[in-house]
Amino acid sequence: MERRKFLLTSLLTVPLTALAKLNFLTEKKLRAKPEKGFIVRAAESRFFGKKTSPKDTYGRCILSSVDTDNQLYLSVGADLSNRELGGPALHIHHKDDEIFYIVSGEFLIQIDKDIFLIKKGDTVFIPRGTAHTFANHIVDNPGELLTIHQPISPELEKFYDVFCHNGYMNEEQMGKLFTKDELKMLYANNAFVGPPIDIESALKKLKS
């Protein structure tokens, strides 16, 4: 009993400044990156923290996993984005939430079995483990889609990097562009679970 009282009394006499210092050190350890702010220009991309040109690509990374200790990833369109109709197959991210923000224009979004037309200013939240996809339904769509992942794995960022330089890929193409180990890690946390959005059918249903 006396020992317990002594320990309690000792804790109560610790200066608040010391506790504050301890808290600061813990926070500093948890947020090792980024240590310094930066600006990403409109003509820049930064997959894995490396500044490159997004010219003639399907998208550009504006905040990388390297910048955020795998806690956050942001990407937007580039020169070749949304020129053609279509989108990725229905898929699931098992370990990260995804957010779409419509900067301009409009797109189709599928969440589980439901398909929606989303427009400028709309935000879509996809909890991890939820089947989803999107589609461009306008040829040469001038719209802009901001994509956010929280958190983000390096293997998923690698997939986006390869996609932005090659466009949508089938299984055979992915086998040539990724190593077996990279694909194994990618499919461990992400899965294709259905076809892309049938644009013609979706638009008919939305109009009815």
Automatic annotation (TrEMBL):
Pfam families the UniProt entry points to: Cupin_2 (PF07883)
Sequence ranges assigned to domain Cupin type-2 in this UniProt record: 89-148
Keywords per UniProt: Signal
UniProt key word tRNA-binding: no
Leader sequence residues: 1-20
InterPro entries xref list: Cupin_2, Flavonoid_dioxygenase-like, RmlC-like_jellyroll, RmlC_Cupin_sf
Name assigned to this protein: Cupin domain-containing protein
Originating organism: Pedobacter frigoris
